[in-house]
Description:
Penicillin G acylase, beta-roll domain, single chain, globular, Penicillin Amidohydrolase, domain 1, alpha+beta, about 800 residues, Penicillin acylase family protein, eleven-stranded mixed β-sheet, Pen/GL7ACA/AHL_acylase, about 35% helix, zymogen, Penicillin_amidase_N_B-knob
Amino acid sequence: MLALIRRWLLLVLVLAVIAILSIYGFLSLSLPQLDGTVSSPDVQLPVRVDRDRQGIPTVTGKTRSDVAFATGYLHAQDRFFQMDLGRRNSAGELSELVGKAALEHDRSVRIHLFRRVAEQVVENLSEDERELLQAYTAGVNQGLSDLDSWPFEYLLLRTKPAFWKPEDTFLTVFSMYLDLSDDQAGRDAGKGFIASVAGRGVANFISPSATPWEAPLDNSFMPEPDIPGEDQVNLRLKSDRDFEGLTGVFKPSTVIGSNNFAVSGNLSEHDGAIVEDDMHLSLRVPTIWYRMQFVYGEDGQESKITGVTLPGTPFMVVGSNGSVAWAFTNSQGDWSDRVMLEVTEDDHYITPDGPVPFQNRFSTVKVSGDTPQTMQVRYSIWGPVVRSKYDGSLQAIRWTAHNSEATNAGLYKLEQASDVSSAIEIANASGVPPQNFVVGDKQGNIGWSIAGRVPNRIGVDSTFPLSWREAEENWNGWLPLDQYPRVINPASDRIWTANARVVGGENYQKLGDGGYSPGARSLQIRDELMARQSFQERDLLDVSLDDRAVYMSSWRQVALNALDAKAMEANDGRVVFKAYIDEWTGRAVVDDVGYRLVREFQDAVKLKVLMNLGRYFTLLSNNPEGSVDDGWIQELKKEEVSVLRLLERQPDNWLPPAYGSWNELVLETIDEVISELGGVEALPLKTWGERNTARIRHPLSGSIPYIGEWLNMPAVQLAGDNWMPRAQQPDQGVSERMIVSPGNEEEGIMHIPGGQSGHPLSSFYQSGFYDWLDANPSPFLPGASEYTLMIIPGE
Length: 795
């Protein structure tokens, strides 16, 4: 009997091994070709692709269009599923691939008609841009066709991929618009609601334009708004019962921003400037960016451009061409508006030309495994029409991305920029989501401006919903390129941006306020740069890794102020809590319990105050048409700055009636934090690293039992946090770090949180991850060639 059991177990083991080998062999069919030769009728001359040990390709060809073909080929072979998700994300077509789970998302983005806009962008391309895009598209489709099997994700989803179209490249760009802009103009809607029930002064306090942490390049000053008095806001007039059963959960920031900075040749140990770029975006598998080097042109006059590309597009997004290095952060200017509509009895809306009917468009959303869904959206001359979730009124969304003139393929021209001035001119005219553009050149010059199209506004405060008359007057075409704000070679020899306000005065009016960050990261970067008088690349790396908790120190002090001797009498939890925050390192490091407790306190007290305020303003409206929970104020910008001011100044009229003092509210919150973390006995284990543990996941990993985790990056603990240069959360943070001096690329540094390949069987799947994690100064340039693929003309 025992022998029979052994034979059965052996048979099961053999079958399991055969199954594993079969699956491995089947999945291996979708690995890219690394060596050898492929032919294509879409290349004019031979193109050479050399990959180093991490899979980073150097593409060498005679023409830019041939390099574009090879770029598309490589993107498709390594990252096609990522590209597919990118185009479907902005087109509202994810449900067709993954089913009902994406239906709500698809409905929300379909209103922007991005597939239609992308087609218009293609029609508007110049001849050079069209040639580039056609070559890239051909490369993508051949790269996909040359795989021996479809990418493994399609096998799991039991479907097959659709080939690439030219407009899909711009759908990929529109996915970046969605990441980087307020596509619903939600801040405007929220501020407008507060203004309608309590006045604009209150709304501007809740979501202020200025903070104490700002560090603009031009040293301009903007005063903080006053705290409104009891004649405008008075929570004490309400009863305790009004604030019972508060609803809402903590909503962390969806994007924690980016950093870039530069020092001129006067401070560099090279002759040239040094540029640093940290693009803080979502962290996922595969990574957003794909490292490459382009080499093209005639022998002896070749252009060499190194940096990162965005799969789905043929552009070098950030990088260096040997003469110029350039970098981006999100500008946070005002690129979207809410327009209040006046509706007539016969369901028309008022325009400058009188009442006109709404345009009704129907759209069918295909859903994998289910019946198609039909949606109807009304459109106005200003954009899609939505119903305000606060009061039910009809409003239109006006956004730069809706206009095909705002998007183009001009970014590739940066590859040929020769100095700071020419690079800024190219960036201003490029069709990308408007970004802070920081650039340095080989001669040592540095500069800042805005990349992308900027509305030509006339000065109406568009952080609130606009009447239709204001909408017509406020947005008069595009800002002329020669009127773009620019800072070139400032006296400080330093430039920095981190999603906060960069300029004031007239230039601030041109850009508006789309929800700048509070400025704490900008301030720390500026101060660190000013503290040094000479720089190498590793010095800029040190600045980017600054995890000092300057901003969080203010929140810590709020807790300490409340934790006096009386508050801690017979309360061991508070005693231990205070001891940990007394002893904190003042940094967001993984083994610090004190920082973790301050951070948990900040989240909890912020939510508590904001939910009470959300309930208060909702009560003032007395409007049954609204449909919000009490946490809605978290969707505004810089609202946390106002909460901190309330906690520091403790105005009685802003205190919820359930509390006798602000310190009572603070102490209750501390007790709740201790309880939610498991009680006082559990506090020693509650380090920052335990909370800030990486969740860098493949989009399908959660759908695959047992082995899905194999697709994810390691769940390692991460230093850093939102409001410091080392901005890091479990699934958001440094999606790319570049530090480079043009002309001295061999000294440059590059970090990416994952590998080149999107295929888990590839040796390039995790390459570079641990250099990113440990901030090892890994080389900016690709290494020696270990694989060579030739793409030659032919059928």
